[in-house]
Design a protein that fits this description.
The complex is a heterodimer of chains A (253) and B (234).
Chain A: H1 12-27, H2 32-51, H3 63-66, H4 69-81, H5 83-91, H6 93-97, H7 104-124, H8 127-136, H9 141-167, H10 172-188, H11 192-199, H12 204-211, H13 215-223, H14 229-251
Helix pairs in contact in A: 1-7, 2-4, 4-7, 4-9, 4-10, 7-9, 7-14, 9-10, 9-13, 9-14, 13-14
Chain B: E1 4-13, E2 16-26, E3 31-35, H1 42-49, E4 57-62, E5 65-66, H2 71-76, E6 78-81, H3 93-103, H4 109-119, H5 135-147, E7 153-157, H6 165-179, E8 183-188, H7 192-197, E9 200-205, E10 208-214, H8 215-220, H9 225-233
Parallel strand pairs in B: 3-8, 3-9, 6-7, 7-8
Antiparallel strand pairs in B: 1-2, 1-4, 4-5, 9-10
Helix pairs in contact in B: 3-4
Classes of the chains: A mainly alpha (253), B alpha/beta (234).
Chain lengths: 253, 234
């Protein structure tokens, strides 16, 4: 190689973009990504049709389609997020990555946004559903758009939780199961049965506060066409708190 | 100033005192052989020096940058291949090196990758995924990512471990070619490697430096290097 001096410190953005590109492409390196996209699409549509009876309802709206998205994200965001850090630990590449000129935060942001983008792709593949509704009826397009925005934010929140689970272990299976369980609790919060269970322990005021933490409770306004500050802040807080906490866990290795 | 300056480095894991007051420095042109039994603290010292672990006390300075206070600048001047040469198995060799070049923000990453593939004789497996490579090639991939940016400081944790004699010869040849312009630390179990590759020897046992001297002085300690090693590390 040439006699030029050692490379200077890289541009701050270079490492972030390099990690983001690698991670995003990494999803498509294995057949798992395509299975994931197919499963998401199949479930999103069949839940809306067979359980949500979206067709029989006779209304040109996607609210019954988005109704099941917290369930889907609770399962699939941990599936996509399990590899974020667990795989680095298992392969021993964490030591490599963190001895390259990149801060843990740059690497964590690159990884997180790559996974979030991947979940966004899964969501985009369901767009024919929206086109079908537009073809069959005359829906409010703004409501559909806000539903998609809400679902994407909900995916980010579940991914934040998955990132923490992934940072804690070197096993993707353990990362997935713990991530899923944590997200599952957030799905249950706000459902009648769960509320009854809670009201046996807490006062009604406290139960009401806890209900606000449920995923559906926060996604619902989006499916009605409302992009409110409070649910938006909720999803972003969970997403970025998860990102931050997982980064701190990796940093304390 | 030396390219590597290690001063009073300490690291404990719970009750285990893995590195105790380790100090040494390495100048450009030196190839230091890091010797010691398993669990002696060699790898931990390397992990401290490369910024992967944080020391409990002491400092490590690489190319003038403190690895704790200015880690990104220190790491930009550092090439490191951890034990077992980990790599992203699902990527091809070319993709992996390209990622390393881009992450380091190197100008003309494609050219750097091509040069490094040639230097490390990896051209024929460039399109293969790392997972499918033999151990010899994997070790060379680990070496390649460590030298892709032509760093001033090179730290290699057992780079010839598990290689056949021809592969060992190959890795040593590449190392010797570039050693004059760098400060190199190589940990090894293979005592013959000292004579063939190193200019200096540091023996570590129980987290302490037991000996730090030129290769010539080390070789004068006795005809049987195994015996010398046992005596120093007892």
């Amino acid at each position: 190689m040439s006699d030029q001096p050692a490379s200077p410190a890289p541009r701050p953005g270079a490492a972030f973009w390099a990690v983001l590109r690698r991670e995003f492409a990494g999803f498509f390196r294995t057949p798992l990504a395509y299975v994931f996209l197919a499963v998401f699409n199949a479930f999103a549509i069949s839940l809306a049709f067979f359980i949500g009876n979206i067709y029989e309802a006779g209304v040109a709206s996607l609210d019954r389609f988005f109704l099941y998205h917290p369930w889907l994200w609770a399962f699939l965001a941990p599936a996509a997020g399990a590899r974020l850090w667990a795989e680095e630990r298992r392969q021993g590449t964490l030591e490599l990555l963190l001895t390259w000129p990149v801060t843990v935060w740059q690497a964590a942001l690159g990884k997180f946004f790559a996974a979030w983008l991947f979940l966004g792709c899964a969501l985009l593949i369901t767009l024919p559903m929206a086109f079908t509704v537009c073809y069959l009826g005359d829906p409010d397009v703004g409501v559909i758009v806000s539903g998609y925005v809400g679902s994407f934010l909900c995916a980010g929140a579940c991914l934040g939780i998955a990132a923490i689970a992934s940072a804690l272990t070197r096993s993707q299976v353990i990362a997935f199961v713990t991530g899923f369980l944590a997200c599952f609790v957030l799905v249950l919060v706000g459902y009648g049965v769960f509320d009854e269970l809670l009201s046996g322990v807490f006062s009604s005021g406290t139960v009401d506060e806890i209900r606000r933490l449920g995923l559906w409770r926060n996604l619902e306004p989006f499916t009605l066409g409302l992009i409110d500050l409070r649910p938006t802040a909720y999803f972003l807080t969970v997403a970025f708190a998860g990102l931050g906490l997982s980064t701190l866990i990796v940093e304390r290795r | 100033m030396a390219l590597i300056e290690v001063s009073q480095l300490q690291k404990s894991f719970g009750a285990i005192h893995a590195v105790k007051n380790v100090s040494f420095s390495v100048d450009r042109g030196e190839v230091v052989g890091f010797l010691g039994p398993n669990g002696a603290g060699k790898s931990t010292t390397m992990k401290l020096l490369t910024g992967y672990l944080r020391p409990d006390a002491g400092t490590a300075i690489v190319a003038g940058f403190d690895v704790v206070e200015n880690p990104v600048a220190a790491k930009a001047h550092l090439g490191y291949s951890p034990e077992g040469a980990p790599a992203y198995g699902e990527m091809t060799v070319r993709e992996f090196l390209r990622f390393a070049a881009e992450l380091r923000g190197l100008a003309d990453p494609a050219q750097r990758v091509a040069d490094t593939l040639k230097l490390c004789r990896l051209e024929e497996v460039a399109g293969q995924s790392v997972d499918t490579l033999s151990k010899g090639y994997r070790m060379r991939v680990g070496f390649a990512q460590a030298v892709i940016h032509d760093p001033a400081v090179l730290i290699l944790d057992e780079p010839t471990d598990g290689l056949d004699p021809n592969q060992k010869f190959e890795v040593r040849r590449i190392l010797k070619d570039m050693a004059a312009r760098k400060a190199v630390i190589v940990s090894t179990h293979i005592l013959e490697e000292v004579d063939e590759l190193c200019t200096r020897v540091i023996v570590i046992a129980q987290g302490e430096v037991r000996c730090d001297e030129s290769k010539e002085r080390f070789l004068q300690r006795g005809a049987d290097l195994n015996q010398v090693f046992r005596k120093l590390t007892a």
